[in-house]
């Protein structure tokens, strides 16, 4: 009896708190509300895939292009209307990103990521982007390929037995990111239990934990202290990498990674543009933005190839035709892999790894249809909803790479937004596309890929938020 009393009191207090704070202003009553309990129930019943969120509220997304929820003491509007989406992406002064240091003050999230290119706005963002941009223009292909070949060596030792692809892709993409972004080998493919991987995974767990975000558990000092210790450990590693990189550059040694290119861009300016602390926060945000996204994209991609054998066969035919005897595509060959690109785009439509964008904070009232969303509200572009809207896509639930036959087919009407859009478009889109194409070229040449029998995903992928919820076991059968 006593055992249940405490949780019951907490739940009652939460209900009272929610009821008092989430009173709907008159002007917003006709926008459908997703309640705190819809979200909470979703988390405890593990029904929190963005596919479920979309299907449960599809009626409202399709009719109004917006639904609302009350969270963090404010109203948040999830947008699927493509006209508003376009405005959000193009008018960055009216829709700046929310300031993380104000939104999650004193959190591990704010401590780890500080001020960086992805979460800043206005002049600060311009300064960061000016240093980051040139680094992403000349990506070191050799650093991608050496890790991809290492992964192939690991696969070589396994034949016909199922391989869990989510964790393999996590390990592969972390190693690629470490090497390409700042010349550091996490060595996750060879030794996933090493201290660097652990330090990174510990911080990921903290900053992505939905319960901690929902209930702001870091307001409890002991939790905050424990988390900050873990953040410090990883930040110290990044500090060390920057220090070593300065030394290497002074000694004339070069590997061509992004940090090196950013340090060069920094020195080319009249005044130093980014401090070492700001560079460190950008390293942290590249990890946040570039790791799980690409690893999820590759996992869902391999899954769709395993379940769409015709697509797999067409893609393989193209890879063998374009690459000939080359294992790794050259820069020119990357451009010729037209069908493979269509498959990659369609996968990013079906399963967008960034299925909601960073909150934007309205600086003026937003009037559309018969709604007036007041200044100060938070807007969240719901990419999954836009990508699955039957108003914007023919047969949205079917995997049809051919819909991308015409280049930029759907970017003009803002219905394909896997990498965002406008001036805040993803900095790492080419980085990720190169990585995905390279892996596919190597795997398709060598293996036939099928879904393991009795897979939990045999009737469709199970999602948790934007990622796949359960392991995906695939069989890689060597081709003759
Ligand atoms: C499949 C892989 C990826 C997807 C789906 C993806 C998606 C996105 C999206 C949707 C945005 C816009 C966010 C917004 O406007 O709120 C974005 C921004 C960004 N992405 Fe990516 N991303 C991917 C890979 C990467 C990689 C590999 C890196 C870096 C190594 C990266 C770095 C960034 C950065 C720095 C920004 C912020 C740009 C700015 O605000 O100026 N992303 N990404």
TrEMBL record:
Transmembrane segments: none
Cofactor(s) demanded: heme
Signal sequence coordinates: 1-22
One Pfam family hit: p450
UniProt KW keywords: Heme, Iron, Metal-binding, Monooxygenase, Oxidoreductase, Signal
PROSITE patterns: CYTOCHROME_P450
Gene3D superfamilies: Cytochrome P450
GO molecular function: heme binding; iron ion binding; monooxygenase activity; oxidoreductase activity, acting on paired donors, with incorporation or reduction of molecular oxygen
Binding sites annotated in the UniProt record for heme: 426
Family of the protein in this entry: Belongs to the cytochrome P450 family.
PANTHER family noted in UniProt: BIFUNCTIONAL ALBAFLAVENONE MONOOXYGENASE_TERPENE SYNTHASE (PTHR24291:SF50), CYTOCHROME P450 FAMILY 4 (PTHR24291)
UniProt protein name: Cytochrome P450
Organism: Gigaspora margarita
Highest classification ranks of the organism: Eukaryota, Fungi, Fungi incertae sedis, Mucoromycota, Glomeromycotina
């Amino acid at each position: 009896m006593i055992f249940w009393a405490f949780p019951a009191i907490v739940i009652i207090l939460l209900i009272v708190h929610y009821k008092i704070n989430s009173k709907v202003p008159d002007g917003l009553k006709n926008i459908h509300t997703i309640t705190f309990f819809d979200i909470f129930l979703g988390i405890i019943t593990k029904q929190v895939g963005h596919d479920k969120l979309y299907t449960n509220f599809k009626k409202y997304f399709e009719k109004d292009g917006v639904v609302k929820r009350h969270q963090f003491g404010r109203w948040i509007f999830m947008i699927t209307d493509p006209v508003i989406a376009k405005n959000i992406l193009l008018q960055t002064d009216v829709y700046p990103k929310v300031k993380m240091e104000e939104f999650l003050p004193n959190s591990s999230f704010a401590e780890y990521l500080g001020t960086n290119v992805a979460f800043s706005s206005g002049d600060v963002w311009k300064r960061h982007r000016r240093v980051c941009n040139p680094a992403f223009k000349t990506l070191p292909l050799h650093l991608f390929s050496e890790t991809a070949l290492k992964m192939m060596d690991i696969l070589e030792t396994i034949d016909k037995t199922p391989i869990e692809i989510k964790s393999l892709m996590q390990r592969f993409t972390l190693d690629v990111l470490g090497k390409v972004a700042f010349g550091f080998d996490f060595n996750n493919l060879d030794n996933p239990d090493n201290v660097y991987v652990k330090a990174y995974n510990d911080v990921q767990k903290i900053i992505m934990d939905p319960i901690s975000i929902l209930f702001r558990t870091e307001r409890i000092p002991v939790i905050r202290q424990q988390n900050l210790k873990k953040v410090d450990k990883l930040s110290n590693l990044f500090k060390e990498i920057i220090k070593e990189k300065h030394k290497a550059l002074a000694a004339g040694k070069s590997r061509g990674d992004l940090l090196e290119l950013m340090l060069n861009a920094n020195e080319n300016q009249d005044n130093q543009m980014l401090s070492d602390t700001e560079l460190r926060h950008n390293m942290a945000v590249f990890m946040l933005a570039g790791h799980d996204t690409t690893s999820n994209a590759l996992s869902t991609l391999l899954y769709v190839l395993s379940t769409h054998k015709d697509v797999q066969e067409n893609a393989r035919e193209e890879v063998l035709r374009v690459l000939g005897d080359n294992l790794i595509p050259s820069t020119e060959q990357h451009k010729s892999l037209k069908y493979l690109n269509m498959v990659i785009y369609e996968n990013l439509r079906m399963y967008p790894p960034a299925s909601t964008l960073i909150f934007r904070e309205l600086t003026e009232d937003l009037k559309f249809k018969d709604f007036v969303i007041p200044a100060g509200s938070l807007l969240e572009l719901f990419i999954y909803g836009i990508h699955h809207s039957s108003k914007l896509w023919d047969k949205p639930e079917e995997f049809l790479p051919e819909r991308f036959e015409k280049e930029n087919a759907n970017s003009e009407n803002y219905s394909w937004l896997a990498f965002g859009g406008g001036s805040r478009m993803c900095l790492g889109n080419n980085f990720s596309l190169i990585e995905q194409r390279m892996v596919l070229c190597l795997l398709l040449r060598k293996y036939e890929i099928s879904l393991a029998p009795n897979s939990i995903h045999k009737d469709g992928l199970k999602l948790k938020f934007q990622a796949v919820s359960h392991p995906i076991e695939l069989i890689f059968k060597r081709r003759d």
